[in-house]
From TrEMBL:
Keyword Cell membrane: no
InterPro entries: SNS_sf
Keywords: Membrane, Transmembrane, Transmembrane helix
Keyword Transmembrane helix: yes
Protein known as: ABC transporter permease
Spans through the membrane: 35-56, 77-98, 118-137, 144-164, 176-196, 229-252, 258-276, 283-303, 309-329, 350-372
């Protein structure tokens, strides 16, 4: 049952997890909100459609699915690197939020006069070990993590909501870069999480349908539409994103912080579970679990949090760029049209223009904006 709703839990959790690192210094910037909404429509929405379409076509996870799809399309094996990058992005996100959790937990314990006499990197390493063990539970930790995070946020709201003054500011490439990054993390673009979730659901559906008649199989294929899967996820992300923007500047009380960051560990465990499952296609489950643990541990201990944000921006942008170019230029038109199954040919043409031209151009402009910010 949890498998069917895993994508919706992720849609709610990603904005709550990551907005604090990408929200503007002043949440009252109206132009930033508008740019974020534009990026959600022009970049995030076409990419989620692409993930769902490729998941339906491949009936495999991202790593195995890209191998199958490149063979079908007679495309270069270089496009298969999306599967590897998707697993890496999920590990980087897990490392980023666990690094934040170690800092937040130590801050809360300091306020409670209960600071442990251990270095911060040791706390982060201990949290990583706990998270990897939780990853063995699969999708089960997701509702627990969401519940703990929501309780922690409610405790902070009880202390009062900050007064926000709205104003227009100058629009720049740097602001566009932050808006695109926020849109990408809002939908988990570049992670393959929705591809993975749809793959799990598809396998269950195929197994159930195979037990029925051929007529039932054809009816299931005829009733499938990517929009039925994509729009609920995207609208949920949009609504939660607005809420996350409002509360990203709030300070949590000590107990609220402990509950919130405990929930974060449960959610991070699913990200590590996903990356382990992807790598298992190549290395086997045990070796993949060790690789995931070692890589995530190194990122948490050796890389500062601000650098992890930069790594996440670069790797996720490259992953989304690969996905958009492959879906827009390498895949066969007939395969994508059937996988999306739009009700109108006009909708398909709009999506195709967006995934082929708009998404790559928006990502390149955003990367230029990030370079300008880092150089300044």
């Amino acid at each position: 049952m949890m498998i069917r709703y895993a994508s919706y839990f992720i849609a709610v959790l990603l904005p709550l997890l990551l907005f604090r690192w990408f929200a503007p210094a002043s949440i009252g910037e109206i132009d930033f909100w508008l740019l974020w909404l534009l990026a959600m429509v022009l970049v995030a929405l076409p990419v989620v459609y692409a993930e769902i379409a490729l998941a339906y076509r491949s009936v495999e996870g991202p790593l195995a699915g890209m191998q199958k799809l490149t063979r079908e399309s007679d495309a270069s094996p270089i496009w298969r690197s999306f599967g590897w990058l998707a697993a890496l992005v999920s590990i980087v996100i897990a490392a980023l939020i666990i690094s934040g959790a170690s800092t937040g937990i130590l801050t809360a314990l300091t306020e409670l006069n209960s600071t442990p006499d251990v270095p911060s990197f040791a706390v982060a390493a201990g949290l990583m070990v706990i998270t990897v063990l939780l990853s063995l539970l699969g999708t089960a930790p997701l509702p627990i993590g969401l519940g703990l995070m929501v309780i922690g946020l409610i405790l902070s709201i009880a202390n009062g909501v900050p007064n926000i003054s709205f104003a227009m500011t100058d629009i720049s490439l740097v602001e566009w870069a932050r808006a695109v990054a926020l849109a990408l993390v809002s939908v988990g673009a570049g992670t393959g999480l929705y591809w993975f979730g749809q793959n799990l659901v598809s396998k269950q559906t195929v197994t159930a349908v195979e037990a029925n008649s051929q007529q039932a199989q054809s009816r299931a294929a005829r009733d499938y539409r990517a929009t039925k899967l994509v729009l609920p996820i995207w609208i949920l992300q949009l609504l939660v994103g607005v809420v996350a923007l409002f509360i990203s500047g709030m300070s949590l009380p000590p107990i609220g912080q402990l509950l919130y960051w405990a929930g974060v560990l449960f959610v991070a465990s699913y990200l590590l579970h996903y990356s382990t499952q992807q790598l298992a296609h190549k290395f086997g489950l045990l070796v993949s679990l060790i690789i995931t643990f070692v890589l995530a541990l190194l990122l948490v201990i050796a890389i500062p949090t601000t650098w992890l944000v930069g790594i996440l921006v670069i790797v996720s942008s490259i992953a989304v760029l690969l996905l958009s170019v492959f879906a827009g230029w390498q895949m066969k038109i007939s395969h994508l049209r059937k996988s999306l199954n739009f009700s109108s040919e006009a909708f398909y043409n709009l999506w195709r223009v967006a995934i082929r031209l708009v998404v790559p151009l928006a990502l390149l402009l955003a990367l230029i904006g990030w370079v300008i910010q880092w150089l300044s």
